[in-house]
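protien #1 (seq + structre)
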Amino acid sequence: MLIIANKYRIIEKLNEGCFGKVFKAVNIRSNVLVAIKVETKNNNITSLKNEAKIYQYLGKMEGIPNLKWFGTTQNINYLVINLLGPSILKNGKNTSLKNSLLIGIQIIERIKHIHNKYLLHRDIKPDNFLFDLDQQTNKIYLIDFGLCKRYNYNGKHIEQKTIKQIIGSPNFVSINVHKGIEPSRRDDLESGVYVIANMILGNLDWFNCKSLFEINILKENFKKKLEIPIFIKRMLEYIHLLEFKEKPDYDYLINIMSNEIKY
């Protein structure tokens, strides 16, 4: 059995991506279950160290995992957070409209809270929203800050720049990111709306496309389709009018979904 830092015993692998592997583990001293994200040291890349700093900076913010430990050995860096449940699309099936709206409100709230701390997530997707271990609460957590970046330094918003490649997951990035525009607050929100639409509608039109150009065209036509819920169209129409540096009205988006629940 692999033990990290003489303290955490690895139980099983939960996930793997370009930024490392995530394991379920147990603290052998307290018997508390945790999640450990591990990256192999390579050319002084320290993305996990930066992510640990972000978790520490966000502190005990609602819906953000608690950083329990960050450490390093000769070969790896590792980050330890509280163990969470499955992703919001755990079964790969459509979620009921009411539950999708309740989760959708939390998605916008999580994005709002990190934006209020001058951070962009830049990789909003279903896999990065996890339920609490106690799924009966329906509480969700936002994870994976490997692509996170500040958008405001000393009261000054970053300038709009051109990017050479997509930042984030192609199925969920915004239309502007497809066009080579650096992400800002509006783009996290657009990605959030695609996540909500994914919960309600299942796989979206572009999910099986290989061409980034085709994905972008399908996204541009998405809100024009008759079968798309009106509230999704309203949210996208609002977000598409936002300027690069403009502060979004998060409560407006939340109210759109809250009003939908009432009816």
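ok now protien #2
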Amino acid sequence: MKDGMDSTAVRRAPEGADDFGNRKLIRPSLSRPENNHFPGERRDRPIVAKKVPPPEQTHAENFYYQKQIQSKTPMVVVLRDGEEVHGTIEWYDKNCIKIIRPSGNLLIYKPAIKYMFKESEEPKKG
């Protein structure tokens, strides 16, 4: 005897439809080749990276003060009015420096300073 189902009623799906769920997804690589452009893309001039601006604060002034403080270097501070102050730098901050000298300590505002140099060095005239 045959089963109640007709063997012709149950068919297998076509082979292409069964493989659709098992397909591997292929994604193209979007990284640029070594010559910086894709094939067929035209580049008249090379890509130039923008210059990075220099840092706003270099800390060179802080480094200089620290070095002179640690070595207790005798300094000459020339003020804007031409007066020379001889002594060693004890400390500094954003606005002023403290000079130690035998006749008394001074707190000098940085805007009042024309220039400074080590006492052992002669300033360059010119």
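Helices lie at 15-18, 60-71.
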